[in-house]
Design brief:
The complex is a heterodimer of chains A (431) and B (357). With 431 residues, chain A is of the alpha+beta class. Chain A contains 14 helices and 17 strands. Chain A has helices at 9-12, 22-30, 34-49, 105-118, 139-151, 182-192, 194-198, 220-223, 240-259, 305-309, 351-371, 378-385, 387-394, 417-430, and strands spanning 54-55, 68-69, 72-73, 92-95, 102-104, 119-125, 132-137, 167-168, 208-211, 226-232, 237-238, 268-272, 282-286, 291-296, 314-315, 320-326, 340-347. A five-stranded mixed sheet of chain A has the order 8-9-10-16-17. In chain A, strands 2-4-7-6 form a four-stranded antiparallel sheet. In chain A, helix 8 (220-223) links the parallel strand 9 and strand 10. Chain B is an alpha+beta fold and 357 residues long. Chain B folds into three domains: 17-110, Alpha-Beta Plaits (2-Layer Sandwich), CATH 3.30.70; 130-189 and 253-340, Sulfite Reductase Hemoprotein, domain 1; 193-249, Alpha-Beta Plaits (2-Layer Sandwich). Chain B contains ten helices and 14 strands. Chain B has helices at residues 22-26, 65-78, 101-110, 142-151, 153-157, 196-202, 205-211, 291-307, 314-321, 323-330; strands at 31-38, 41-46, 51-57, 62-64, 82-85, 91-95, 167-170, 182-188, 193-194, 217-222, 225-230, 248-249, 256-262, 277-283. In chain B, strand 1 and strand 2 form a beta hairpin.
């Protein structure tokens, strides 16, 4: 039995309504844990005064320089003593979840047992970087909890100016739209950069995310410094029986309004079966015995829309891999930036192919470590130095897929033009 | 006395093979298609003929061990002992027989876990830590989300929207909640209040000066102590100086407001990915249930639901109807603060005579 609860009239209002309530969960923990009794008091004080009262500090585990998020209370009485003394230290341990966030219940129960023993019993599944957030631990217990978690086979996530915990979508495990083995790429990359995760020494954070197709369920383009987004370069696959089934259910109006007219590059046309073009880059799916949906795969940008609508009838191709984009980040300091294309297509089939992702990541991080200013993200660095300097730094050739349009102003010195053309021609001849 | 043994950490990021449902492992990379028999249920079919049903339920994300154990009990009794989580903190149970779907749903809902969040629903809010655990929060996260999802309960459990809707909340301008169809983000309206007695002891001053996006901070001697001062005419109240220097208090119970942003989309489907745009600000930080925020979000969703065509995400819908009509239909005021003047802003101005009447 824990000590008497504090009155929490404001938080109590978050126990009404149908959505699962975190307050109800905290109150259940508070029956046994003094730390959660005081956490509720602490949070109620924030709700009353509309301010936060945690400060950071330095708490860690043996061998690592990051991964624990220290929190010390700032609610003190006149003498400087913590008002909510049993929640005066309420640190978080970040743990990297398995790729795709798959678990067996035995593993989740072990996390619960460890955290009930050493921590508050509050676990977030998952934090915004993808970590398992074991929330609420005293300085003394951090190492003990960590030892048991690490012995289970789990490793700590990143914090501060470091490579951060990564995320990959459910991908090949369950999704027909998966274009590569997301979990494999995720694991290979993270295992390469464990030192940079656990010992923060970069200019600022560096995040990887892995999405299996252009639907980008991991939000990699906006949230990661290096985004690996699945795609394919041959024709879309089609299934006539499923095409007919889809059409019988949805009809011509939905086909025109929801599929054909929503194709961003007008790559789809409705054709009579006899009129379908025979070129190698044309694929088609039957709608009925007389009509087909024709796809010009040279115009298709692999946006995924028609495949999302007509799943099964249309599918991703067979010659699969990924587009790699670099430089995504949120607002601070220059404004949000999207990742931009660095590798238009990287084939991902063999182990050697996957090694190429690791090699590119290594080149990008080495360049970032050498050239970024303190607290500057990769996207900001690229904006400051220009994409071409970045590409030359990491040894990647320019490609017209990297731009939305070529330059719209003449303010550039072009006296190396002929040499550049000669280089391009020499490469073409050698290929 | 002997020092306790220092255990060296085992540095290794594990793979997911042992956690995969056996059907996932057997059909890895070999799935053919999926459909949704009902909201909250995904049915995947493999080229091998194998089928799996995934049942998705909402959680409160910040979970006590009792809740997690309950979710595990349900997995062991009604599912097959394997679960996974989505990026938006929904739990998914994996079933290899269709007959197990209905009993599992009944059990989840009996314990208060809503089944839904698939397809064209409003799924769970991606959110941050807020007052519960962050060191720099302007507001709470879990409480805002709880009150939002209470109001959107029906929309989570049903697939009635034109397309999927992703929401996020963030407790400061860093925007850890991320891009979304609709985002709620703290927007400070006053420059930081500086505790000059503490700056010299707590802050590395050149770092703080460098952190400011508009070069409004400079070193100064205040009351004989080294401190910092802010050019309040230049200050954009972003709060970037606060994390490296807590004495530059940016959070304010009254002047830290909430802004609403719309139209973020990370998917490449149809148009290219888009960033969200600010459409409303000045909403009060009204704990514990933030009714003003919920009213605006609810109204935008209601308008979108009634007016957008099938498959239009919020950004696609606004692309079609145009921004003037967005503000007209939602009744939100278009103020001068919504015209961008940050770098790259000219690209956001209307350089055409494209006007809708």
């Amino acid at each position: 039995m824990a000590k008497q609860p504090h009155a929490t009239p404001l938080l109590d209002q978050l126990e009404t309504g149908p959505w699962p309530s975190f307050v109800t969960g905290l109150k259940r923990l508070a029956k046994d844990k003094d730390s959660v009794v005081d956490l509720l008091g602490h949070l109620e004080h924030s709700y009353k005064t509309r301010k936060g009262y945690w400060k950071g500090g330095t708490v860690g585990v043996v061998g690592y320089g990051g991964g624990v998020i220290p929190r010390f209370t700032e609610i003190k009485d006149d003498k400087g003593a913590a008002v909510f003394k049993d929640a005066a230290e309420f640190h978080t341990i970040r743990i990297m979840p398995p790729p795709g966030m798959h678990y067996d219940t035995d593993t989740l129960r072990k996390f619960c047992d460890i955290w009930e023993k050493y921590g508050s019993g509050l676990i977030a599944l998952h934090g915004q970087s993808g970590d398992i957030m074991m929330q609420g631990c005293t300085t003394e217990n951090v190492q003990k909890a960590w030892d048991e978690i690490n012995i289970m086979g789990f490793d700590m996530g990143g914090a501060g100016p470091a490579v951060r915990t990564s995320m990959s979508c459910v991908g090949a495990a369950r999704c027909e739209q998966s274009c590569y083995d997301e979990a494999k790429a995720h694991q290979m990359v993270i295992n390469t950069f464990l030192d940079d995760i656990h010992r923060p020494a970069l200019p600022y954070k560096f995040k990887f995310k892995f999405s299996g197709c252009g639907n980008d369920c991991m939000n990699s383009i906006q949230r990661s410094d290096m985004a690996v987004i699945g795609t394919w370069r041959d024709n879309m696959t089609t299934d006539d029986a499923m095409g007919k089934k889809w059409f019988a259910k949805h009809g011509m109006n939905e086909l025109v309004n929801d599929v054909v007219s929503r194709c961003p590059t007008k790559a789809l046309q409705i054709k009579d079966v006899k009129d379908v073009r025979k070129d190698a880059h044309i694929s088609s799916v039957a709608l009925n015995d007389a009509q087909c949906l024709e796809i010009d795969n040279k115009d298709c940008v692999r946006c995924m829309h028609c495949i999302n609508v007509m799943t099964g009838a249309l599918g991703v191709g067979k010659d699969k891999g990924a587009t790699i984009l670099i430089g995504g980040k949120s607002h601070l300091k220059i404004g949000a930036t999207m990742g931009t294309v660095i590798i238009p297509f990287m084939s991902l089939k063999t182990d050697e192919d996957y090694e190429k992702i690791v090699e590119l990541a290594q080149a990008a991080i080495d360049f970032f470590a050498e050239n970024a200013l303190e607290h500057e993200r990769t996207g900001e660095m690229i904006e400051r130095i220009g994409l071409v300097n970045f590409l030359e730094g990491i040894g990647v050739d320019v490609d017209a897929n990297m731009v939305t349009t070529p330059r719209t102003n003449p303010y550039v010195r072009t006296d190396g033009w002929d040499e550049e053309v000669a280089k391009i021609n020499a490469k073409k001849a050698a290929a | 006395m002997a020092q306790p043994q220092m255990r060296k950490p085992v540095e290794h990021f594990l793979d997911n093979k042992k956690f995969l449902h056996p059907k996932f492992a057997a059909n890895y990379g070999n799935w053919k298609y999926h459909d949704r028999p009902r909201p909250g249920v995904l049915h995947h079919v493999s080229h091998s003929g194998d089928e799996v049903w995934s049942v998705r339920a909402g959680t409160q994300r910040q979970m006590d061990v009792h809740t997690i154990r309950l979710l595990c009990d349900i997995a062991d009794k009604f599912a097959e002992g394997r679960v996974r989580f989505t990026i938006r903190s929904n739990i998914e149970y994996i079933l290899s027989e269709e007959s197990k779907v209905a009993p599992l749903i009944a059990e989840l809902e009996k314990h208060g876990f809503p089944v839904g969040g698939t397809g064209n629903s409003v799924t769970m809010v991606a959110h941050t830590q807020g007052w519960l655990h962050c060191d720099i929060p302007g507001t709470d996260a879990s409480g805002v989300v709880k009150s939002m999802m209470d109001g959107l309960f029906h929309e989570f459990k049903n697939e009635e929207m034109p397309n999927r809707v992703h929401l996020s909340t963030s407790c400061c301008s860093i925007n850890c909640g991320g891009q979304a169809d609709i985002a709620v983000i703290v927007q400070h309206t006053k420059p930081p209040k500086i505790n000059h007695d503490m700056v010299a002891n707590v802050c590395e001053r050149p770092t703080v000066v460098a952190r400011c996006p508009v070069a409004a901070i400079r070193p100064a001697l205040v009351n004989g102590k080294p401190s910092l001062e802010v050019d309040e005419k230049k200050c954009i109240c972003c709060g970037a100086c606060y994390p490296p220097c807590p004495p530059m208090q940016i959070n304010d119970p009254e002047h830290s407001k909430l802004a609403i942003w719309v139209g973020g989309k990370n998917s490449n489907a149809r148009g290219k990915p888009t960033f969200m745009k600010m459409v409303m600000s000045g909403l009060p930080n009204n704990a514990p249930r933030w009714p003003e925020v919920n009213e605006v979000v609810g109204n935008i969703l209601k308008t979108y639901k009634a007016d957008a065509r099938p498959w239009e995400r919020l950004a696609d819908w606004i692309d079609r109807i145009g921004w003037p009509r967005f503000f007209e239909k939602t009744g939100l005021p278009f103020t001068k603060y919504l015209i961008d003047d940050w770098r790259g802003s000219r690209a956001t101005l209307n350089a055409s005579n494209h006007i809708r009447f």
